[in-house]
Amino acid sequence: MGFDMKKYLTVVAVAAVLAMPVHSQTITPHGGNVVYVKGTPLSVSDLKNAEVDIVPFGEQDKKTIAFMVSIRSKASQSYEVGTENISAALTDGTVLRVIPASEMVAKVRKRAKWGSFWERLGAVGDAMRDDDTTSYTTGTVTSPYGIATYNGTTTTSNPNGAAYRAQSRQTAEQNVRDIQQSADASVASIQDNVLQRETVFPGQEIQRKIVFERNDIKSPNAFSVTVTFAGEIHSFSYALN
After folding, report:
1. Do 154 and 94 contact (CB within 8 A), yes or no?
2. Shortest CA distance to 151 belongs to which of 166, 136, 168?
3. How many CB atoms lie within 10 A of CB 225?
4. Cβ proximity of 53 and 33 under 8 Å
5. pLDDT score for 163
6. How far is CA 198 from each of CA 85, 167, 189, 195, 228, rounded to the nearest angstrom?
7. Rounded to the nearest 5 degrees, what angle is found at the Cα of 224, between the Cα atoms of 48 and 5?
8. For range 57-67, the mean pLDDT
């Protein structure tokens, strides 16, 4: 099979933008091939109806592992593809759960919501700390006529309190806007790049990210990734080192 190096460079470049790939030991049974582009392993399965290429991202964090999956349809009709078409399993049969894009978006939005809450709460705390302060005193006075108690109140004004509170609120609101903008950018990236259900037409190629929970993978361990498309099964084997 002739390799389209320009296409492979594009796949690897897209993967690099989404997450820095890490080296994984790659084995490709069932007629697959492996090529290396700038040190990154690209697994290739070229069957009658489609060519499927996978670039491992490796561990995203301690809970997930991800891949960039490229599907080029050679079929004569269109086919739908979604997360149900891609699976991963350990050698003992344990299936790794696919994390859907909707769940990723919800997680980003939740983090942004809490981040905004803490920013605004911090501004309220600053306002209370720098407002006018009141101190209370009490004591006793002894005289020939007896013992008397007294209470006193002293209020100290902070001349810069109002300006500081305004600045605190302004800083908090700017931080909240930054948090929301960052969340919006993350959501847009998820929606543009993470695999969701879509139709692949004859001759079309799509490149999408797929993320699995890796809680059950104890490094080192072997696992397989399977892509089902147009009635064909593309199988890839990996070892997480």
Report:
1. no
2. 136
3. 23
4. no
5. 67
6. 11, 48, 17, 8, 14
7. 50
8. 71
CB 83 within 8 A of CB 100: yes
Residue 68, burial from CB neighbour count under 10 angstroms (0-12, 13-18, 19+): buried
Counted residue by residue, the chain has a size of: 241
Q: What's this model's pTM, rounded to 2 decimal places? A: 0.67
Is residue 37 a contact partner of residue 9, using CB atoms and an 8 Å limit? yes
Rounded Cα gap, residues 222 and 91, in angstroms: 6
Q: Which residues pair with 240 in a beta bridge?
A: 221
**CA pair distance 229, 82, nearest whole angstrom:** 10
Res 20 pLDDT > 50: no
CB 34 within 8 A of CB 42: yes
What digits encode the pLDDT tens for the residues 93-111? 888 899 999 999 999 988 8
Q: Which of 76, 71, 77, 98 is nearest to 87 (CA)?
A: 98
Query: Can you list the domains of the chain with their CATH numbers?
Result: 5-100+196-240 (2.60.40.10), 113-188 (no CATH)
